[in-house]
Amino acid sequence: MLTQTLGKKLKLGQATDNDDSNYQTFFLSEQLLANSRACPQRFACWTGRESKEDTEAMQTWEKVMSNKLLATMLNTTALKEATLKGKKGHNCESYAPCPIEERSLPRILKNFAILTNYK
To answer: How many structural domains does the chain have?
Structure first.
């Protein structure tokens, strides 16, 4: 049920880059949330690294982590630690297994912002 709700919100609010962008974005978000415990931490680490160049990304990520719904699904303490490690230059690939690639970071962050109504 939650996956269906998330999918509908992502599809309705997603800005498209190509024809199958909605499906790809939903798939990435689903992978991040459901299929690997390491994916949220890897994503948090990447966001921490990215925050040096993109303060908006970090602000969005902090708002996402404070979202009550997502906090029930994710270990926010572990995510905060991973974010700090990313800021310090930690190798984010050490959070494995995770099928998501770093190039997906902006799209996933944008979808979390849409999901939590911060953008």
So the answer is: 1
For 58-105, how does the pLDDT look when each residue is reduced to its tens digit (9 = 90+)?
A: 887 888 788 787 777 778 889 899 999 999 999 999 988 888 888 888
Token readout for 94 is 């050490």
Task: Name the packing angle between helices 76-87 and 38-50 (round to 10°).
Answer: 40
- What is the DSSP track for 17-65? SSTTHHHHHHHHHHIIIII-THHHHHHHHHHHHHTTT-HHHHHHHHHHH
Residue 29 lies in a domain: no
Q: Does residue 97 have a cis peptide bond before it, meaning omega lies within 30 degrees of 0? A: yes
Task: Look at residue 24 and tell me if it is in a domain.
Answer: no
- DSSP letter string over 89-114? T--GGGS-S----GGGHHHHHHHHHH
Structure-token pair, residue 40 = 């949220």
Question: What letter represents residue 88's amino acid?
Answer: K
Dihedrals phi, psi of 96, to nearest 5 degrees: -135, 160
- Neighbour tally for 110: CB within 10 Å: 18
